[in-house]
Structures are given as structure tokens and as C-alpha cells.
Amino acid sequence: MGYIESYALFITNYIHGEDENARQLRRTLARYLCLTQVFVFRDISIQVKKRFPTTDSMINAGILLREEKEKLHSIELQYDKYWAPIRWIHSEALKARKEETITSDLLYWKLCAEVDKFRHNLQLLCNYDWIPIPLVYSQLDLVVLMMTIIEFVFFTGWLKVAQALLNPFGDDDDDFECIYLIDKNFATSLCIADNYDRLPKIRPDPFWRSNKRSPASPSTALVGVNFKITSNNQASWTRDDLQTIGRGKIMNIASPHSHHLEESTNRKPLRLAQNSTFQINHSIPLNLSMNNDDNNELLRYKFPVHL
């Protein structure tokens, strides 16, 4: 349908300058893109045709200037003139390159390529409107003689759907909102052209001198628990995980052999109830002994399970 944000961003990215000429050039190129879109939509959309029945109505809307209207009328061609505003864009871009407003040939070539891509998309839209697809979807000879009522209802609904597909650019509620698209593209493109240099200053982020990379706020930060789901769908923590529970608190866990854990291969998970929702209680004792099943009951008390 031709959303214009990407192309307006290309224009503002390749044409810099805070003087009046650079600003006017950016706005003019963006307006030419909208003008091309209006020319195409006038021939395929009933809504746009009613909104802009003549070129004078386009002048009153601010999309077309009077001298540009004279240039269009001076072109002697019996076919459509969709290409004229695109040609103006290429000419103005070449002039800007010669004046060093566009700083390199690569940027000039890229800008022209993006404009041609916009024109190609509009041409593709014209081709779809030229030959409705599917062509024979609505060409059915419906004869109600001995047909059942169910067949009649289905075929009638089929024809109604085909009728809606014949002209998606009409006045119906389920047709494309071309008027909204034109208004949006025109306002958005001019806004992008005017605000290309209004950028926030680059400042250090809150994690500039910290190794922390979590973007959560302090009120929503999660407790650093390494939660695991075992093969039999049981919730479990390892001993090393329990050492990291809490905000900035390190808890020492004694092993059954009265020495601290050193190897990850010696981990024994503490299992909670299966298929349950749990909440963490921060009042965990600083020293836990794990030599019998009584400590598992203690953990169940400190980590209450809510079914």
C-alpha cells in the first residue's frame, strides 16, 4: 500500500544541513513521493477520486503547487504521468549531489534506488487493480432448479465474497483506507523531514561502569535463583543456587561431610512438591546441614508451597 516512513527516513539520512535550502529540499522530495501516491490512488480508489477529483483540489490540499501543475500540463502524453514526480526527485537529487548537499555518489545512488523501489511498489499495485485476481472467481452461472437450499446458500456466499474482492479500493467499510494512508504519509513525511537533526545527546547508560546487564527496575528485579525442572517434572535447587538466593546476601551451606562444596559434580538437588507454584521466603538460615531428610522438611517450611 505504500507506507512512506522508510523512504522519508532515507531522505533525511542522506540529505543533511540545517539551512533553509536543505530543509526545503527534504520536504519537497517527501512531498513528491506523496504526490506520486495520490496520482496512483486517484485512478484505483473511489475514495481518493472523490477526495481529489481535479488537480486544483490537490493544490488546495497543499500536495501540489501551481507551477508544478503547469509543468504536468505541459507534458504532452495521452497516458498516465505517474512518473513525473519521480523524475523531479531524481533531478533534484542530482542537483543536490553537484552542490555537495548529498556528500557522495553512493548516497545519491542509494537514494535514487529507494525512490525507484517506491515507484515499483505503486506500479505493482496498479497491475493488481488492472486485472482482478482471481479472474473467474465471480464468473459462475448459478442455476437454481433442483439444487438443495444448502448448495444455494454456499454458492451465494461464494459470489458475495468474490464481489468484495473485485474492488478492494471502493467505498465499502471493508475496503482499504486510502484516504487515511495519504493523510498519514503526508504528515509523517514532512515531520520526519523537519526533525532529522533533533536527536538526544549520547550519554552513559546506567550500566556504564557495572557488569550487571539486567534491564529490570529495582522494584521488579527477580531473585537470582537458578530454577531447574528435572526429568520427572519436579522443581529443584542445587546447593550452589541456594548460596545465591537473596539480594546481595551470600549464604554458606554445609555439606554432609562437614566441608564446603567444591565440585559441581557433587550437587544434590533439593526437590519440592511436583507441579506446584512456590514462593521464596528470604528468611533462609545461613547454615544448613543436608545429612538427612529432616532438612528437606525445613526447606519446605522456608519455601512454602501453594497448590
UniProtKB/TrEMBL annotation:
Entry's localization field: Cell membrane; Membrane
Membrane topology, from the record: Multi-pass membrane protein
Record-level Gene Ontology MF annotations: chloride channel activity
Sorted UniProt keywords: Cell membrane, Chloride, Chloride channel, Ion channel, Ion transport, Membrane, Transmembrane, Transmembrane helix, Transport
Signal sequence annotation: none
Cellular component GO terms held in the UniProt record: chloride channel complex; plasma membrane
InterPro entries (alphabetical): Bestrophin, Bestrophin-like
Pfam families listed in its UniProt record: Bestrophin (PF01062)
Entry's family note: Belongs to the anion channel-forming bestrophin (TC 1.A.46) family. Calcium-sensitive chloride channel subfamily.
Task of the protein: Forms chloride channels.
Protein name (Swiss-Prot/TrEMBL): Bestrophin homolog
